[in-house]
Amino acid sequence: MLLFYRSSLNPRNTNLLKLITSLNPFTFPYSTSSQTQKQLINHITTSFQQQNHTKHLLTHPKIINLKPHELEPILFALRSKPILANMFFDWCEVHLGFKDVKVESFCGLIHLLLEKRMFDHARKVFDKMCERFEGEGEGFDCFEVFGKGIGRYGSNGVTVFSFLVDGYCRAGKVEKAVELFFRMRGMGVCLSEYALMRMLSCLVEVKRVDVIWDVCLELGNDYKNLCAEPYGYVTGTFFKKGEVNLGFEFHRGVIERGLVPNVVTCNKVMKGLCNDKCLDTAHDFLSLMIEVGPRPTVVTYSTLMKAYSKESKLEEAFQLYDQMMLLGIVPDLVVYSILVDGLFRVGKLEEGHQVIMVALDKGIVLDAVALSSMIDACVKQGNLEKGFEVYRKMLKGGIEPSIVTYGILINGLCQNGRVHEATGILGQVLKQGFEPSVLIYISLIDGMCKSGNLRYGFRLYNEMLTYGHAPDAMVYSVLINGLTKQGRIHDAIRFFYQSLNNNSRPGIVAYNTLIDGLCKFERMKDAVKLYIKMGTYNLKPDVVTYTLLIKASIEMRRLPEALILFFQALKRGLSPDCVTYCTLLYGFSTENKVAIGLWILENMHENSVEPDIDIYNVLVNSIFKSGQVGKALDVFRHVQRYGPEPDIVTYNTMISGYCSLRMLNEAVQLYKEAYLWKTKPNTITYSILIDAYCKEGKVEDAMSLFSFMLEKDLEPNVVTYSSLIDGHFKILKMETALELHEMMLRNDISPNIVSYSVLIDGLCKRGLMEEALLVFRGALDRHLLPDVIIYGIMIHGYCKTGRLGEAMSLYGHMLKEGIVPDKFLQRVIAEYGVSDA
Length: 837
Prior knowledge:
Blueprint: H1 11-14, H2 16-22, H3 34-47, H4 53-57, H5 61-64, H6 71-77, H7 82-95, H8 103-115, H9 119-133, H10 143-153, H11 157-170, H12 174-187, H13 193-205, H14 209-219, H15 230-240, H16 244-256, H17 263-275, H18 279-292, H19 298-310, H20 314-327, H21 333-345, H22 349-361, H23 368-380, H24 384-396, H25 403-415, H26 419-431, H27 438-450, H28 454-466, H29 473-485, H30 489-501, H31 507-520, H32 524-533, H33 543-555, H34 559-571, H35 578-590, H36 594-606, H37 613-625, H38 629-642, H39 648-660, H40 664-676, H41 683-695, H42 699-711, H43 718-730, H44 734-746, H45 753-765, H46 769-781, H47 788-800, H48 804-816, H49 823-832
Keywords: Repeat
GO molecular function, one term: mRNA binding
InterPro entries: Mito_RNA-Proc/Resp, PPR_rpt, TPR-like_helical_dom_sf
């Protein structure tokens, strides 16, 4: 149990300070003649300069016969050489077998170490002393011994006793530390701020709120001007440790004892809570201040409102605003700026303007910061003209735009491709004597590169260097991207290495940009070289680096290399993201490597990466292509049951898979199921089913579905019409097929080469070659390039109707166009003897 007292001190301690100061600093009980003492000190000093100092020390008779109680006078004599005194003290313990060194010797050594501000050495001696005399229990009290040493060694009392308090705290003896604190107060000796905070920290650790109250009462106003005021320190520490209730209890107790804390200190506590994002605790702390004091100020409210605004908790911020008004606390420009900025950041421009009008009505004069925030919001919302309207109002109102304002406007213009106007704003910046900011340079360089004006972009880059601005990773990546987009890969590589040789650090973003450019130009070998060299420049590849290389490997159909890169990323401790997995999965699924695709999916789950529905769609499509219908259905049902929620692409993939395997009944059943899952079929869904019905010869069912589709206000596409036209030709309903073709044209749906192929094929099969030729020429008039399929249909049609000359002519024309005959056309040529001769 801790026993503390402020007034009922041990009577002997009240006059201790007088006793301490009355002592002669140069008097101690074991004096020797000055000459003998001088010789002894010289001997000790000389000995420790020798390689074998032990042997040399023991040549002096005084040291050979030295007793533990005689150690302190020697230490005192060595007070001008504290390091030597410390070494001699340690040597005596080891070589003279001093197991019962007096506490006075320990205290004496600590005094002379403290005098020279050798605190670390002093702490080690103190810890050794505590360990040595710990067996004496509560009876051990070095307070008086330390006190007497103050006069003898000429030490600073505050330093010595503060060191003692700190030492007790470090040793876990907080009871002794607090007892010593009250003794010091009784003597009129102050405790150093450092030692006080150490003691309070220990008391917080053991949750002794009652003792902390006593300490605060004893301190009174002594520490009110310290930067680490006890109240703020204790409250903040409780909150940081998660002991919120104890923090509130302490606050209440302080108020009840008449020690009302300064509101400025409370505001600092509030700021600390907000910085740590403990907003619920901060709100409760505000409520406590309102309830018991001190009265919150506009700074208290603005601090919490800003934190809420940063977290997009605008409703809570406005509730605080209303509370302020009820309490009669007048909001200032900072409060209104916080609210306006918060609204603008979430895109609520109109509400932000309303708050500004309220501020103006209350006589608040808006500054460049608030108006720049408004301009920034307009730019981010894509309303650049509105932003310039605010800018013009600024000028009209006599408010000088800041460099931030100009940076926002230039960035907005560059993002909208209005680079010429952005350079005009830059001219205004320079005329007004502003130095362009990094944001301005980045925006203009980005704008120039996107508009293809790389030369001016590099001029700005060089100017940026001239002004002493350090380009960041964004600048390098923008310039490298601009070069690669223009196909200037060599220039991009040269610029990248120049920046490295100039001790610049383009960073991983620029590295990835260059690797991406190399991959796009199929320079995989150079991309891999760059990847290998990253370590040379103290850069580590990130997930984006590996994803780019994996994607390039897959596009080059080098799947084993893609898988090796994936394993290298895992080995480096990186966590591939959804994009990496999707890229890898797509590559293997395209090659129908279903087993690997399923393994990748399993690996995603193991690494806590949640696959999105796009990944499942790719996988299901791959499984159907491999003919594993049951496995595809299992994956689909798993998604339905556990998520992510299937979208219409998922259903279309399943329906298309069933149709490709001529499982029309299952496809129709899934189509009906989509409605039950509240997933509305789209044009692609109906087109897939209509095509399947037509291929099965069920044209009436296809037309019925087509009519239902139109009732649902869905627009058929060229695939829908092409399927129906082909279906009607197959059942010899040519008139209906032609009507559907006309309907497609009336609905402004442009036929593609496939739809023309279907129509021409139907006409050729009926022997209507003139009509087929008209359709063929119609395709040419629409600037559609006939492929080998449409040539094959026409040539075969001419051959079947005996018009071999026209077949030969068309075949010759096809060859001149550089189109190579496929197997079907080769058989037709061989069968009918058609050649290009």
